Amino acid sequence: MGERSRQLLPPFERIGRTGRLILERARRLGLGGWLRAERDPLLQGVKTTAACVLAWWIAARLLEVRMPVLAPMGVLLTISATAYSTVVRGVQQVGAVVVGLAGAGMLIYLLGVNAITLAILVAGGLVLTPLLNLPKQNVQIPITGLLVFALGAGYSLERLIDLLLGAVIGILANLVVLPPRHVEDARKELAELAGDMASLTADMGKGVRGTWGEDEARSWLERSREVDARLRESQEMAEQAAESVKLVPLERRRQDQRLDQVSEAMTCLDHVGLQLRALARSLTDLAAGVRGLPAEDVDRVPSALGDELMAISRAFAAFGRLQLGRGSVKDLGRLRTALREGGEHQTLAAERVPDTGNVRLWSLHGAMLDHCAAIRHELDPESGPHQAAFPARLIPG
Fold first, then answer.
1. Residue 33 dihedral angles phi and psi, to the nearest 5°
2. Cα 10–Cα 236–Cα 226 angle in degrees, nearest 5
3. The pLDDT of residue 231 is above 60
4. How many helices (H) and strands (E) does the chain have?
5. How confident is the model at residue 1 (pLDDT cuts 50, 70, 90)?
6. Which pLDDT score is estimated for 328?
7. In degrees rounded to 5, what are phi and psi of residue 79?
8. Which residues are listed as membrane-spanning (predicted)?
């Protein structure tokens, strides 16, 4: 299910579904793979906490300001998804506070402290926020005005010092100390997407080898659409990965190759996602008996097709693990083995396609086999079109 679809669920159901997804992916990746996938978010959390503590200590011990807690708040407001956006956000925060301080000081001087001044501060701050191209959720202008309104004009300098301190520490933390590596986040997302495809393909393979009907086929089709929607959402994460190395030259030199891998792997999954959805659509049409297809013949799909889908599932799982860390020779071997076994099962499936006078049914069987062949070709690390989607050290050029 895509992120937007999950947001539409009731809160408790959304929490439960997210928890199940986390447990399923941890099981699929294994302890080592899960730790590799979660390493960067943990380090970023530790770094942000340390930056907040440092800002508080400087404000309280060295500058002796009255409200040192505002300095770590400045860190939290400034630190963003990437080093580049942190600098942008820091400039925005400082600009918003300066505007808020100036506006509040002028209004209090002219009108005094009263309800009219309060109303003008809030309304004016909300109007100025979009005019200054600040994010919609940024309410620094009215908040600063209200703090000056409550604490007096003498608070202005302290507020500015607090924010500048927090912004500087936040920017330095994201530029110098473990800059956010959203390249790794994107690779984690790729691994999870491949894992979702592996789970779906395995269920389709088990179903085709057993007893299945229209309800099962429609469930597979819906899940394939959810994977496709998540692929669309993941494009933003790939763009964020490219932005995350801006303003960090050393990081960019190290990450350029990984950025190329992320981009190519995303393209690869986009292509196989189309084939997977088309395969699910073919099974649904067959089960529903549309387009002149005989619905009673669903059990005549060769069981070898189910075997091939199971092999493709293992290929998806191996492809996903290859996106984490530096990849492993073992996972590359698993991918090659799965693709080879898938080809063998396809040969058997082609030989066992029922001899039928229904041209539409015969064509559908051929189309499903072709979808499987196309998926295996896209995932092929040697002769496929996406060799850059694999760790370069494992695929000599």
1. -65, -35
2. 45
3. yes
4. 13, 0
5. very low
6. 87
7. -60, 125
8. 69-87, 107-132, 139-157, 163-180
C-beta separation of 386 from 323 below 8 A:
no
Alpha-carbon gap, residue 354 to 43, rounded angstroms: 56
Structure-token pair, residue 86 = 């942190």
Residue 229 — pLDDT band, cuts 50, 70, 90?
Answer: confident
Alpha-carbon Rg for the chain, nearest whole angstrom, is: 28
**Domain boundaries in the chain?**
11-176, 182-389
- Which DSSP string corresponds to 169-194? HHHHHHHHSS---HHHHHHHHHHHHH
Rounded to whole angstroms, the Cα distance separating 81 from 283 reads 42
Q: Measured at the alpha carbon of residue 268, what is the angle toward residues 251 and 287, in degrees to the nearest 5?
A: 145
How far apart are the C-alpha atoms of 349 and 209, rounded to whole Å?
12
Fold of 182-389: Methane Monooxygenase Hydroxylase; Chain G, domain 1 (1.20.58)
- In DSSP notation, 352-370 reads TS---S-HHHHHHHHHHHH
Q: What is the pLDDT of residue 21?
A: 67
Using CA atoms, how far residue 71 sits from 81, 90, 99, 148, 179, in Å, is 19, 13, 18, 16, 21
Read off the pTM: 0.62
81: number of Cβ within 10 Å? 17
- The residues, any chain, with a CB within 8 Å of residue 337's CB and separated by 6 or more, are 314
Residue 304 to residue 347: CA distance in whole angstroms: 9
Helix (H/G/I), strand (E/B), else coil: 137 = coil
Rounded CA gap, 336 and 324, in Å?
18
70-90 pLDDT, tens digit per residue, is: 788 778 777 765 555 666 666
pLDDT tens digits for range 93-146: 777 777 877 788 788 878 887 888 888 888 887 887 777 666 655 666 777 777
Q: How far apart are CA 206 and CA 212, in angstroms?
A: 9
Residues 6 or more apart whose CB falls under 8 angstroms from that of 257 comprise: 392
Whether the Cβ atoms of residue 244 and residue 183 lie closer than 8 Å to each other: yes
The candidate with the shortest Cα–Cα distance to 316, out of 394, 201, 238, 233, is 201
